[in-house]
Amino acid sequence: xxxxxxxxxxxxxxxxxxxxxxxxxxxxxxxxxxxxxxxxxxxxxxxxxxxxxxxxxxxxxxxxxxxxxxxxxxxxxxxxxxxxxxxxxxxxxxxxxxxxxxxxxxxxxxxxxxxxxxxxxxxxxxxxxxxxxxxxxxxxxxxxxxxxxxxxxxxxxxxxxxxxxxxxxxxxxxxxxxxxxxxxxxxxxxxxxxxxxxxxxxxxxxxxxxxxxxxxxxxxxxxxxxxxxxxxxxxxxxxxxxxxxxxxxxxxxxxxxxxxxxxxxxxxxxxxxxxxxxxxxxxxxxxxxxxxxxxxxxxxxxxxxxxxxxxxxxxxxxxxxxxxxxxxxxxxxxxxxxxxxxxxxxxxxxxxxxxxxxxxxxxxxxxxxxxxxxxxxxxxxxxxxxxxxxxxxxxxxxxxxxxxxxxxx
Length: 409
Prior knowledge:
mainly alpha
């Protein structure tokens, strides 16, 4: 979890934007940083292009990849892209299918319009992550010309905008297979290293796990595997970095928009994402006018979410009682949506780390109940909790130990 790194990057862009507002003659580099477009002046040298990863220098040509943060940010992008791309693809296909099927009713067309705006926002988020994690330089998507139009004119302008359909094609036809391929690339490389390095432990505990069809059963063979794993660490990091760089170039080529003097929609979206990522929770806000306003917005959004959850669950409970008494299937959607509400509640109280912690707690309770009530022949619930708990502890370690997000300075 690199929440602190992303938050710090986004916060730096916000500071750059404030500086450009105070100085109308600000350089193009500061303006680019404000909209998360890293120019050559604003971009660190080792993040400018793929060839910089192999720049000459003492040890930097080959071994420097192990100490560059961009290597691990790119690896994070490859690993996280798989669940996000699948969730995006499934959501888009479902919404488009349902909207098209209900197009003859009063529900279908509004649902399709909402879906159109959702995929545009999703593409804008992809742009931010590509700029932050992959070092891409993608300008804000060109939807800012809609700002001065009425609602119907905005919809027509969005439908006529070629980037509306370009972003849809990217999410459905490129991002989904790219997420699968990137995840396979990263897990294959990391899995190979892991299997080579744990061979002595397999031999020590009597675990027979063939390595590519070869059974390792002697200490010297295990030592050779460990030496091979150590020797392959740096080449593996180069391969992971190249995979992230390649994904960044595809994303930049697909989503790059024409250069324009200003893009209000993109800038406002960047500000919104910056505020969301750097939100430390109500407990971490100082009592200022800006903090009160932001806290009020966050609280109203949470109340709307909680109220919608309560209303929908009440309707489902009535349906459950009237149609299938005694089965209580309503508990499943209550738990599933409850995890999302727990994430939102924890985020409101303690930022991203608070949301992660409360989601872990609610999910763990659900796993325990499922294990105790439905699966009585084995006890398995602690396995996902242990692995998830390690990830949560690492998240907290990064947050508190390196770059905690602070309230307004």
